[in-house]
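Collaborator request, handled under Task 6.
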Amino acid sequence: MRLNIDVVMDYQLDGPSPVLLAVEVAALSGQQIEHSTLEILNATYRHVPGDAGLGQRIWANVANDRLSLRYVAEVEITRENIPLETLAQSEWQDLPSDVLPYLRPSRFCPSDRFIPYVTKSFGHLDAGAKVAAMRDWVAASITYSSGSSDAATCANDTFVTREGVCRDFAHLLCTMARAGRIPARYASGYGPGVTPPDFHAVAEVWLDGAWHIVDATGMSTASDLAVIASGRDAGDVAFMETQAPAHPVFQNLIIREM
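Structure tokens returned to the collaborator:
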């Protein structure tokens, strides 16, 4: 599948400031960037590696009090949709060292608090079948509701309120997978089926020696999501970070299948 991505962002800042951005599609297996352009007005910028070497971040030094950018890309997605139930689980001692951190609790994914529930509800399942059951549970139990959560909402909050947005679905699925001893990380990306169009969040689980995209919202799949970045949770892969508050003036994302 080929995607055309067109992102426009306009934010009011408190003054000249450095801004850390994660908006460019990552160059990685399963997705090929055919071409891309990035323009940031009244700013100088440089690229730095993303977390765990996945993708790139952008340090933009904005010369005034306005961040205005446009990112356009054409991306070929070659990733296949592999049924989770066919995927095997690695033993703890066989996991690569860079995968081990994604078994541990993080700020928005307190997986240690979910071990009793996950053991009781999904302990009879293994590997990909366990993740598939967790995905289906989150999809059936959590209501997608815009504005129902904020930047401080963690997986425990979502489990209690039973509502959230893609960020919360991904956090809860990552949390449950880790509690079930399956490495899971949070990923951001662009998908043509995301409604409303926005930076989208999914989970990635480590099965059969590779990371696999799992979206409990049902709005994207492995074969149509262009991944931007991955990390322990949303705190690692925010699309924009500033030291002072940034106020949105205009933001528009258009992601089309070509």
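The cover message to the collaborator said: "The longest strand covers residues 66-77. DSSP finds four helices and 14 strands in the chain. Please let us know whether this matches your experimental observations."
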